[in-house]
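#lab-general

N.A. 3:47 PM
ok so I finally got the sequence cleaned up, no stray characters, all 199 residues accounted for. can someone with queue access submit it? mine expired

B.Y. 3:52 PM
send it over

N.A. 3:53 PM
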Amino acid sequence: MNETAGGGTGEAGPPPREPRTWPPDPAVSPAEAPAEAAGPMEDAGEVGEDIAAKVAELEDRWRRALADLDNYRKRTVRALDEERDAERARTAARWLPVLDNLERAVEHADAEPGAVVQGVRAVLDQARDVIARLGYPRQDDVGVPFDPFRHEAVSTLAGTGAPEGTVVAVTLPGYGEGPRQLRPAQVVVAREQSDGAAP
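B.Y. 4:20 PM
back already:
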């Protein structure tokens, strides 16, 4: 019977009626099997929640950083305004003695006319000292070479005996020097004697 069914024809026998199943893994109970199948979905949900929490945390830190930056900017503006006011007050305070002495000179002008000139000279020296202590010393040197960074030539003069390009007179003093220059000195500069002949 078996030989007839198997035949010498080489054909395979009929397929099994039921698919072959492997023995269950003794380490995994049937109750745990559905939970394992649902595991990847649960992991994806947890990852999504973690990302949302991280985004919320970063957004909160970003808002806090913006608020801190705005507060810092406001504090800096206030500090600069306060420092400007303080520096203005210190500068004005240095000029108060000059104003006091000028007022005294005016008060005594009628009683002692001859002393007024001497008093004004003293106040002038005091004013020069104040502006020098503020960092802007007077510049009125004569006999020095002309320097376009320190001097402004208002005219030239021949026949002075000084070398050409030398400052021979100061018409208006300068104050300060280098990058702290308030203004250059206006000067007269020596030039060579000209005979008026065309070259």
